[in-house]
Amino acid sequence: MASIFQAVGAARALSSSNSFDSKKFYLTSRESVSERKGSIFVVRSDGRMNSGRVDKLVTNAVATKADSAAASTASKPGHELLLFEALREGLEEEMDRDPRVCVMGEDVGHYGGSYKVTKGLAPKYGDLRVLDTPIAENSFTGMAIGAAMTGLRPIVEGMNMGFLLLAFNQISNNCGMLHYTSGGQFTIPVVIRGPGGVGRQLGAEHSQRLESYFQSIPGIQMVACSTPYNAKGLMKAAIRSENPVILFEHVLLYNLKERIPDEEYICNLEEAEMVRPGEHITILTYSRMRYHVMQAAKTLVNKGYDPEVIDIRSLKPFDLHTIGNSVKKTHRVLIVEECMRTGGIGASLTAAISENFHDYLDAPIVCLSSQDVPTPYAGTLEEFTIVQPAQIVTAVEQLCQQ
Amino acid sequence: MFQSLDFPGGRVAFTSEMSFIAESSEKRVKCYRVLDDNGHPMSSRFEQISKEVAVKMYSSMVTLQIMDTIFYEAQRQGRLSIYMTSNGEEAINIASAAALSPDDVVLPQYREPGVLLWRGFTLQEFTNQCFGNKADYGKGRQMPIHYGSNRLNYFTVSSPIATQLPQAVGAAYSLKMDRRDACVVTYFGDGGSSEGDFHASLNFAAVMEAPVVFICRNNWWAISTPTSEQFRSDGIVVRGQAYGVRSIRVDGNDALAVYGAIHAAREMAIREHRPILVEALTYRVGHHSTSDDSTRYRPADEIQHWKISRNPLARFRKWIKRNGWLNDEDESELRGNVRKQLLHAIQLAERTEKPPLEDLFTDVYDHLPSNLQEQERLLRETIEKHPQDYPADVPV
Lengths: 402, 396
What we know:
The complex is a heterodimer of chains A (402) and B (396).
Chain A: H1 51-59, H2 68-75, E1 79-82, H3 83-97, E2 101-105, H4 121-125, E3 130-132, H5 137-149, E4 153-157, H6 168-175, H7 178-181, E5 191-196, H8 210-214, E6 221-224, H9 228-240, E7 245-250, E8 257-260, E9 273-276, E10 281-285, H10 289-302, E11 307-311, E12 314-316, H11 320-330, E13 333-340, H12 345-357, E14 366-370, H13 379-385, H14 389-401
Parallel strand pairs in A: 2-3, 2-4, 4-5, 5-7, 6-7, 10-11, 10-13, 13-14
Antiparallel strand pairs in A: 1-8, 6-12, 9-11
Helix pairs in contact in A: 3-9, 5-6, 10-14, 11-12
Chain B: E1 4-7, E2 10-13, H1 51-76, H2 90-98, E3 105-107, H3 113-119, H4 123-131, H5 164-178, E4 184-189, H6 196-208, E5 212-218, E6 221-222, E7 225-226, H7 227-230, H8 239-243, E8 246-251, H9 255-272, E9 276-281, H10 300-308, H11 312-322, H12 328-351, H13 370-385
Parallel strand pairs in B: 3-4, 4-5, 5-9, 8-9
Antiparallel strand pairs in B: 1-2, 6-7
Helix pairs in contact in B: 1-2, 1-3, 1-11, 1-12, 2-3, 2-9, 4-12, 5-6
């Protein structure tokens, strides 16, 4: 199920270093805003998304469609934490639940990880289950594959996704393939995760969008988290999956704060998240660009537009069910991504939508991406390579005029 | 007065003599050997094996040799797409396998089918994989000789060189966490030792104190690249110390030496939680594969010399016969039997159906996702429209 958070009334502090401000998100005018204050509606992810359900949830701010899980959720207070803590919480819960789960990577042990995702885990589980490795990405990824084939469930942390380019051989030729080429005799339930995307002046080599390069590899799944809620949920789902999963985190989103449920939940790996239902246009995005899109959405709403924003979350495979239903409703698509123009997720998504939903489109699909340049170090130049809210607003206006 | 430096790893003494460590020792590292060229033990101190084990080892070496011959011929007749022999390396294959326990996890490169043979993979099973039929455990997805058996603890062969080395460390890590009385054994060639994965795996294994036995089949040739163009070190054995890994060089064509060394290495790996590097010197008598003609880059008399005078089977046979454990009639009966079995296996394999179309899409993931379901549907539609363009022996 899609996770819908509706922060009403109280301002939610999105304490990240980003350029968007921390005002509340606006709902469409027909919704009643008085009932829920400051708490988050979450719906347990338990299967395919039912297309009719979303509309019901939107119009009725209080209750969902007699979903007992949501009802009980509403009564629990939940707890607030930052995105990297949510990742850690998910990881820790899975390590508690299953002794075969282990972590390996550079500086994940006593140092706690470069982004503190594994902080505190080595003292708790020992340094065999939270393993510090020498600097050789291809090799520790290979190590994880060997361990997985022998029965463990390793999580590989790339200190930065860009370094996993060194692990491409193991990821493509072995991780994605060995289940198939062995005739199903060996499974590779690994999770490969780490921060990627463009940060703040980290330089070209540390600003890679690896999802572009990996998306062709058969046998793997790719997901991108964007909120503490889905970060924890996707981490848990990825660990439990029997397939190799690559979980993309973003360097600039680790300090996002959100209130998440106390009770256990998992997000569905293959589902997209409805962030803001709307009627005029479908905006597809993921990871950090979600926030630029929502920023633009505020401006658009003020201008009288009603954008539907979907965080696609599942980069491989695409949730064409959710996306298709949206396209059939709005007939216009804007894709906003951080990948480069050539060969990015947006390029594939454009092709997939054109192929499957061509008849429903009133206008060509527009894809806003970064340029085909290495990310420059200079702050101002770096900003120009990222799609900004103003561009999104302009693109929507142009698309809706057609 | 400071005579030494406290530094991670231990005290380092100072010296006022500037001297560089030589790039190579004056003498090369010695090679452990039990039987001389005539099959006589050079010393009485070696790991004894029983008649049963010795005969089984020899029979397996013969079987491997015949299997290689017949499959090679089959490829030449166009019945197999490709084949790679292990000619000349039968002792490494069988003797190392004999020294292991069935619980030891094996990660091969691709020239070690003898290990599977020793563990009980049948000739029919080998044949099915090579012919990619319905009975192949790999479901027809891999090239010939890319065997794999989770039942026999033998990881499926993956073509890229040396990718199995870090995986071996990971498997050992898994065994260590489970505290199993078993080790991991992984094989690679002299060429594979140049890969980055070799370096990192030895390093990792040493740091993690992982029970891995790294077996290098230094067979002199990596396709057309001789070792003189592959590295400038004294083979691979000297690299062990660079990573803090105990190592030994052994005569790869001496079955008893290989058996003894691997048995000892395994004990050390498990008891002491450490990796061991074994360099087995041998020669790749056959071509790299059926796509290669090695006479183009190496002298024919060199091949002959190793094929005849340094033949591992011949040497071992002499020792066994001298012990009265085998006679010529037994051997020719064995050879005849194996040949017959293989020819029968091939006939059966060729008649067996190929894997069905659905196996093109299964096992990419645990369950069939919607995009693959769609792609399968499209493919079936295409086949229905143009059945004459579709192979008749693949069930839809």
